[in-house]
Amino acid sequence: MAKKLEVNNLIISFRTNNGTVKAVRDISFDLEKGETLAIVGESGSGKSITARAIMGILAKNAIPEGGEIIYDGQDLMKIDEEDFHKIRGNRISMIFQDPLSSLNPIVRIGKQLTEAMILNGKANQREAKRVYIAKSKLLRAEMKEAGVADVDAKFDIFDKVTAEGSKLESDYNYSHERVESMLKNIEAVLIDSIDKEPKRVAKEMKLIKEDEKNLYNPYLIDKSKSELPALMASFSDAIPGFRATGNHEKTDGILKEMQALLKKVMETVVPDFYAMAYCRMNNAMPAYTGDNAALNGQMQAIFNERFLNSFHKDVAAGIENSNRKSFDKKGNIVESLNTALERMSGDGRIDIQVAKEESRKCAAEIENALDKLAINKDSIAYTFKSSITAAVNTYGESLRVEKLKHPGKKDRMFKDRMDIDLYQNNIRLILTHARDSFQNQLDSAEKLNADDLSREMVKFLCNESSKRVFKVTKRKAQIRAIELMEEVGIANARERYRQYPFEFSGGMRQRIVIAIALAANPDILICDEPTTALDVTIQAQILELINKLKAERQLSIIFITHDLGVVANMADKIAVMYAGKIVEYGTANDVFYDPRHPYTWALLSSMPDLDTKEKLDAIPGTPPNMIFPPKGDAFAERNKYAMQIDYEEQPPMFKVSDTHYAATWLMHPNAPKVEPPKIVTDRIARMKKLNEESRGDSNE
Q: Which of 221, 308, 228, 222 shows the shortest CA–CA distance to 272?
């Protein structure tokens, strides 16, 4: 699976009046596409701070001391607020613990759902225009360098095709949305007329008539050939009788005919608007018989033969040229990174001037070697400059502070948290990571499939062009908001759209918050203890909803909780956090059926279930004061299995399997063999037995 998010060696502290709190201490994890990662631990373990760092909403007193959060070729720890604004809420969304605090209590739910859609729609139009122009300019340059003839003339044709095709698509989508709206209003009238609510019915009937005026499109509903105008005329004639008598049989009969007709319309094959635009521009439009599938075949044959096939070959030449130049330069980069590591090796401290010179040189070479046409970005290459610059600057500042004889208050705060060895090792790690990554790319180089990449590039440019003319109107946003409310399981969404947050229960409010988070179709959804404020039965419903949405939308989810039981049936991977560190990491099966860290044992021992007859074990003591983090294993004071070394040295991450790791000295080969508590082993045995029985039943 493709990685959607990488967190590498993340370190975050907070300045307080009492000292610097070490909230997150050197954690790393990956999130794959369509995967759920659960981050589990007690309050104060650093779970929510990690989530807020990913969202870029840390408090002002936060000190990001190191690490990377890589998303779409960018380090989210280094980008500015303007760039983050394009990601936050659009590509990465978050659901918070208390739904009521996430909603404005004096603004109707509908407005809270649509406001962001409309604002984001305008911002997305501007961004799509910028991306299209920038990528096209780069592609033109590479095609010219590859020796493609008449590049500007060919691109002028392509630009006109994408512009005209996007307008045709926008007009069609507008009509299609009106058909959707009309169907929903017809359904509402059929329900409300039975319930004899004449005022509401009259309003919905008016909406049906408004929708009908704007839904005609020759490739969706041809007004001159459709039965809909005659049905609408009959419907208009029947409305006065309904208002006078309340008898809805006649209006209902007409509406059901309309409903059947419109449902067939919704099954219409969508035209190829870009092929259509080319055919129109060249007076080559085939005769239309009302069959969109047949029309697409004819238009695509003309478009491909006369322009697109040759354009794909030209684009492929430009992509190959860009990729070859990037690949050729990576060999030199590996040499430069090796030179930098040699100059900064040894037991002594790194000379700060050498570090600056080498990092600037390597960053410039990597920047120069970027394949700017690559749609899937190389995270190491794109984030190297910001990462190494921040690491060198932090190291230089720590050396400067160390030399001060009379540091001021600000510098004392810095000195309290500095660790010169850590900072210089971080520089070496970044250089080594980059070198190994580029060397692996050189060693495992496969032949570039330029034809597939060419088609992907053309599709990418068409999508960006489509976004340029995609306008989110108030009506469109309202339809989308009602659909989202229905998607998250809110009954009578059309009526509840105009209600205030206080008119919803806790579970319903959380569903509204989930709908708002999904409004921009994000890649990643962060759930920060979304069920804590809800009762058990509602918790189960929200978890089931999140699972359903994940499957339908192929979402990648980070689920934060203090309760292992909550994520038992939804997590693909689990990271157990304690005192700012990940102490165990693995698949759900690894953590539930083969736990290795005493803290994981403690969490499992305190987790209630229906079959446990023994008294649950509470975790003794309290988490440590992270202003003065323990020298060794932070859980040692509360761990009845702790050894002397646990108080003296932090354990490394020991490998249990390719998917399972645990930071406990009990994993050391010389450590005494310790079994998990009986309550944990009994539960594991019971769950294995239940799973085997379940598999047996399903096989039968």
A: 308
The length of the chain, given as a count of residues: 700
Q: Is 363 helix (H, G, I), strand (E, B) or coil?
A: helix
> Could you tell me the two tokens for 605?
């021992």
> Do 543 and 574 belong to one domain?
yes
The least confident of 179-183, 513-517, 673-677, 696-700 is 696-700
Contacts of 12 (CB under 8 A, 6+ apart): 23, 24, 46, 49, 50, 53, 58, 62, 63, 64, 65, 67
Distance CA 477, CA 484 (A): 10
Q: How far apart are the first and last CA of the chain?
A: 32
Query: Which residues form the domain of 211?
Result: 148-306
Same domain flag for 160 and 229: yes
**pLDDT tier at 410 (50, 70, 90 boundaries)?**
very low
Q: Are strands 36-40 and 556-561 parallel, antiparallel or unpaired?
A: parallel
Q: Are residues 434 and 562 in the same domain?
A: no
Q: pLDDT per residue over 594-618, tens digit each?
A: 999 999 998 888 776 656 666 667 7
Domain with 557 in it: what CATH number? 3.40.50.300
Contact of 179 with 215, CB cutoff 8 Å: yes
Give the tokens for residue 694. 């379940």
CA distance 646 to 248: 78
Q: Which of 621, 531, 624 is nearest to 579 (CA)?
A: 624
Q: Are strands 654-657 and 660-662 parallel, antiparallel or unpaired?
A: antiparallel
Q: Are residues 208 and 263 in the same domain?
A: yes
How many distinct helices (H) and strands (E) make up the chain? 23, 12
Task: Supply the DSSP symbol for 648.
Answer: T
